[in-house]
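New to this. Look over this protein:
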Amino acid sequence: MAYFPFYMDVEGMVCLIVGGGKVASRKVFTMLEYGAAVRVIAPEAEEEIAALAEMGRISYEARACAPEDVDGADFVIAATSDEGLNRAISRRCKSLRIPVNVVDVQEECSFIFPALVKDGDIVVGISTGGASPAIARMLKDRVRAAIPEGAGAAAGWMKENREMVKALVDSQPVREEIFYRLAELAMSAGGGLEDGTVKRMIERKLEESHG
């Protein structure tokens, strides 16, 4: 059965990453991009992980991880080459209902990572449920190519102006039309629009609705 895609705000949540190799390093950078509070436990770690720890961007403990280390984490990523340790971490997490991902071992996971395309606040996740990572990568490339340049900036601009539109327009159907049209214009402009242009468009739509 296909996986259901939950989108969750992980900013400030504690993400424990067990392992310090290249795969763990990639997960560290991914989770930092989404604002998680990253904690890494591994006897040794890639230079990038050590550097991030020195800068204070993550917490790094240079030691072997025990299953009990997952206690208190909001979610866990096990990325070690020790299958027994990964399995023990997975079992501990599941017993505590802590979401866990064991890299490349789907049956040990309670959540999986999709192939991600990110542009600002726009995030597209693609998953084949583990059936074919190659297809997921192929679709990721196609989705990235299909997203217009500046789409992320346009979404940020829409977010900034959302409350203004809601304050000026009471009618929900008219408001939805305005949001749709503003999104089209902002995407075409590769970012945002001037306040005067927005207000004139709102005024025209309101006149049409009362017309």
About this structure: Helices lie at 22-33, 47-54, 83-95, 133-146, 151-168, 172-189, 195-210. The chain has three domains: 14-113, 114-147, 151-210. The beta strands are 14-18, 37-41, 59-61, 75-78, 100-102, 115-119, 122-126.
